[in-house]
Specification:
Number of strands: 8
CATH architecture: Roll
CATH topology: Pnp Oxidase, Chain A
Helix content: 25-40%
CATH superfamily: Electron Transport, Fmn-binding Protein, Chain A
Order of helices and strands: EHEEEEHEEHHEHH
Largest sheet: 8 strands, antiparallel
Shape: elongated
Structural class: alpha+beta
Strand content: 25-35%
Length: 207
């Protein structure tokens, strides 16, 4: 990572992103040797990333042949206009973002108990309001689905975060950009402002 100012090792912020984002991008190598990137819904559970899908197809064939994977989650934050920092110079225009990059190995989940726990966690993430019978290995309603649905775990070997929200700016400029984004008031700007405020607070606490 060339600009280390954007690198983060803050576990709480990495976990927050993995908990809140609904999908990520799975990097695999297909049996013919071609790289491929597949978008998948996922859940981060017990220090692993899990996703589900059909038990057959190119993705599963690829993972069976080579379990090495990369997995990336990205959250777009605000586009910051150049004039927030300079009245005429175009180069300060940028887009803020948060990303997590994972390297690991895929493992096919075999037991109904682990499948049920993962699928229940995925439902809680994507449908937090409920409205369904909880998924358990013992529930007759889900017996067939648990038998036919493929669930895959990524055993994480390396995880890094790259968050860009103005850390390269002097504190006063970073606070000014956060103020202007919050005044603009779009939902994405309010999210960005919250991220920037957390970063500023952490920056203040460090010696």
């Amino acid at each position: 990572m060339r600009q280390t100012v954007y690198q983060t090792h803050e576990k709480a912020e990495i976990d927050r992103l993995l908990a809140e984002e609904g999908h990520g991008f799975l990097g695999i190598t297909t049996p013919d040797g071609w790289p491929s990137v597949v978008p998948v819904n996922f859940v981060h559970l017990d220090g692993r990333v899990y996703f589900h899908g059909a038990s057959e197809g190119e993705k599963m064939d690829s993972l069976g042949a080579d379990p090495r994977v990369t997995f990336t989650v990205v959250r777009d934050l605000s586009v910051v206009p150049s004039y927030y920092q300079h009245p005429k110079f175009a180069c300060p225009a940028t887009q803020y973002y948060q990303s997590v990059m994972i390297r690991g190995r895929a493992r096919f989940v075999e037991t109904a108990e682990e499948k049920a726990r993962v699928l229940q966690a995925l439902m809680e993430k994507l449908q937090p309001e409920g409205g369904y019978e909880p998924i358990t290995a013992e529930a007759p309603r889900y017996r067939k689905s648990l038998a036919t649905t493929a669930v895959t775990a990524i055993e994480i070997e390396r995880i890094t975060g790259k968050f860009k929200f103005g850390q390269n700016l002097p504190r006063r400029k970073q606070e000014s950009v956060a103020d202007r984004l919050e005044q603009r008031g779009c939902p994405i700007d309010l999210t960005t402002g919250a991220v920037m405020r957390r970063g500023l607070a952490a920056r203040k606490e460090k010696p």
